[in-house]
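During the reporting period the student researcher (J.K.) took over the structure-prediction task from the postdoctoral fellow and processed the backlog of single-chain submissions. One of the processed entries is reproduced below for the supervisory committee.
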Amino acid sequence: MSLLVAYFSWGGTTRIIAEQIQKTVGGDLFEIKTLDPYPKEYNPTTAVAKREQRSNARPALTAQVNGMDSYKTIFLGYPNWWGTIPMAIVTFLESYNFSGKLIIPFCTHGGSALGRSIADIKKLCPQSTIGEGLAIRNGTIDHAGNAITVWLRQPCLDQPK
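J.K. obtained the following structure tokens:
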């Protein structure tokens, strides 16, 4: 099964989870980066994120995945911003045809868990199978290894969809 672990990480916590997933299941690792970086400080970043959501923005990305058609399973990581996926993830999902692929979301959050991100991913990728998501609370990243391992034992990973 051809695997891709694609993730957007503002502060580095989602990157840590993505790297743990890739180390465990293999596959390729791809970082989703915006052409215009977000501010380094938290509050200004949340203000930009809220503005992007309100205006339904599509931030430009710095790179594309080579050979996306060859991937059958995509682990998709992101921070939960304002209850859902960052708009950079919307840009990413709209850039490819995910029909027939298995998308397995994972997010980092400050208390909102997955929020409405799964529903929003389903709207953007209606011809895909969306696997059970994993939400890791910020501040617990260092102790998340067991939760990640258990989550990666999902039955959907044993058989291609």
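The committee noted the following: The first helix runs from residue 13 to 25.
J.K. will present the remaining backlog at the next meeting.
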